[in-house]
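sorry for the late reply, my laptop died twice this morning and i had to redo everyting from scratch. anyway the thing you sent over, i finally got around to it. pasting the sequence first so we're on the same page, its 305 residues, then the predicted structure underneath. double check i copied it right bc i was rushing
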Amino acid sequence: MAALVYQIISSAALVSLGLYHMVATTRNHLRSPQAYFARPYHPFPLSSSSSPSNNHRLRFLQLYLVIAFLVVAIVHQIVISLDADLLLKGRSPVHHFTSLQSAASLFLFLLLTLALLLSEWSPALLPLPNDLIFGLTAALFYLQSFVSWGAATVQTSDLQAKCDSVSGRISALASILCLVLACQPKLFVADIGLGASMSLQGLWVLQTGLSLYVDAFIPEGCHKLLDVVNGVEGSTKCDLDESKLRAVAILDLVFLVHVMFVLLIVMVTYAMTAKSVGIRALGSYEALPSDNTHIQMKALSGTQA
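ok and here's the structure:
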């Protein structure tokens, strides 16, 4: 139960972060396409994005929340690494090392977020250009994908291995997008794609929790091991090879459904943000004068001439 709760919290955090990034990116691009450039984070509220000198007390709210979620994730991975379960393959604590690897990669994300916060709080103390931040983020996402792929190769649970493998692919996609933004910061498609990849990762984290820990979502022919209480490695098994292949095919289909859902979210987000920015833009313009006095005087002077 605790593992499922953690999956739900992680999913909500990633989806929220991705949605916020997509809305902020779309808003900045629509308001000023010529001056647009990708940003590693967006101040809160979004109205303060156009005025860097704004000292709103919630300006760094996004970074504060990211730091809080990363701390929770690191603690969770460390606690998992301390769990000793005798049902693991060969009685070797494989999950100790995979969990510590995940904790280490998350700790690097935490250090980068703290560095970004310090850079935004006091640019003179730690001046970090955006291209360097995106480059470092690309490296960390690639490291995260490497950790996920490594965990997939040592998993005794076929479902868990498939979920880790897909998660690694999403992290690799985010790494590529960050690298593109480091080289081409004005590429709007890559910037909004980064937000979409974070939302997709959040949805897949939720799907992983449902497929591993909720009986109603575990594919037919697979089941949880009752003796594995904490949901660590090998907690969900498929009895037959046919059941394993069927479960993998179902997860592939579900992943495609999540991809289509994220694409729908991107289109809806763009449409709603464009409508909001358009209404505000029209409301900021002054109405044209209704009288035609100047036109009449110009016509009269022409007639007299």
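The helical segments are 2-31, 61-81, 94-121, 130-154, 158-183, 188-213, 241-284, 293-304.
thats about all i looked at so far, will dig more tmrw
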